[in-house]
Amino acid sequence: MVIDFLRSAWNKLTPKNNIEKQLHVSIATSVVMERAIELWSQMYCNNPPWRGGKADVIPLNLPAAIAEEMARLILTEFSIEVSGSARGDYINQQIKDNFTSLSDHVELYCAKGGICLKPYVSGQTINIDFTQADRFFPTAYTSSKEITGGIFVDTKRQGDYLYTRLECHSLVGTDYTITNHAFRSEKLNYQISDDDYISAQHPFMTVVPLSEVEDWAGLSEEPVTIQNVDHPLFVYIKVPRANNIDTYSPLGASVFSRAIEVIEQADRQFSRILWEYFATEAAVHASEDIFETDKKGNVILPEGKERLYRTFDFDIKEAGTGSYMKEYAPTIRDNSLFSGLNKYFQRIEFLCGLSYGTISDPQQIEKTAEEIRTSKQRSFTVVSRMQSAWDSGFDRLIYAMDVLCTLYGLAPAGKSEKAVTWGDGVLEDTNLEYQRRWSMVMAGKYKIEKFYAWYFGCTEDEAFDLIPDNGELIPPKGGPGNRGNYPPEE
């Protein structure tokens, strides 16, 4: 099913084709990669290609659950501060205002393999446009797969038309050019989504001025070039795993991309379980002649018990058996079916980099202590790499915001120093880490103020005030669960 879906890419025109035709550009994304992103999006929305059909498959919504859990692990103890000057303080406030729904964007990043953060100026503030993977098309990238040019797709429904804006970013040397193009579709069929209208089957149709859409009226109709720019004024953050869909693509792959086939089998197994419950539901098989009928000859079953009886037309006189009634209550096989489903869950956890017991039943984990420890360490490594990807992305985001501050005179020039805290919410064993660090303090290999700073989630300067005046090395009370609550209990 999945292979057929991806292969169909070769026989179907896509938004990529439409954009290339309209702008006469070359998009650095293969059609197979574009279709893979489409598949991940459908799976995330619990509408995979194997849903329904003759097998009546009911999806478990696993992709959304996996993406949500990954986002939770990434942001468990996340905080960011930008300081160093008045400009740093200004950028810090803009980031705080734009990151109120960061968890939603990180979840979509996990589901679709990447996300773009594109800052832009509105009045005296900087807003950040979080562009999902299926609305961003790279046009240029370096040998290290850093994207340096791309096209952002924005759509607006206005009246009976869909308007599409293509915002092109290009960095050549130190010259950065931004160009906007607007198009108007044919009259809308409201049963068709915006994505269908920007596909090649529904071309953009008519070129229109940006001013035709109120939200775009302030944008320049002509290309805008900014000089002395070292990096793109957008940030593409991808899931830091090798892309095994297209190994040459600069785009990332979904966190569940390697588990697609197993997720499909898990959905099918769950549908078998639902059928088993339905097929073995207790019932009474009875001949129709033992019930009254209405004027049309339809059997009238006992009110409220229609689901209990299953009637059949038996020729009782010929059979000579009298009225027929028999209980139907076969043995259900739910234990073995659920056990099989749990095996699928464990395989999905392994392929997605989650620890065992995240979506599977922790009571049914037939693993050794070493295997469980390894799975937790695997989860920690996967999440840490994604945190590092976002950390690096924040550096580029702050750079882009700094350039905008200079261009628009939003804040006086000055340093912008970033401080990001990710915490240790995904460490394999917080108690073990606590004991390890404290033993290093007692051995004189770890400063007590650093231990207090880690434990309470504060700065080292604040940690100095928490150290007992008598200098005794007394561990904070309450254990690791007391982190974030200081000063320690007396």
Shape: flat
Main β-sheet, in a few words? 6 strands, antiparallel
Unreliable segments of 5+ consecutive residues: 5-13, 478-490
Structural class: alpha+beta
Report the mean per-residue pLDDT as an integer: 82
Strand content: 15-25%
- How many helices does DSSP assign? 14
What is the first-to-last residue Cα distance? 63 Å
Q: From N to C, what is the helix and strand string?
A: HHHHEHHEEEEEEHEEEHEEHEHHEHHH
The count of DSSP E runs of length 2 or more, i.e. the number of strands, is 14
* Helix content, binned percent: 25-40%
Radius of gyration: 30 Å
What are the key terms here?
490 residues, alpha+beta, 6-stranded antiparallel beta sheet, 3-stranded antiparallel beta sheet, 14 strands, 37% helix, disordered C terminus
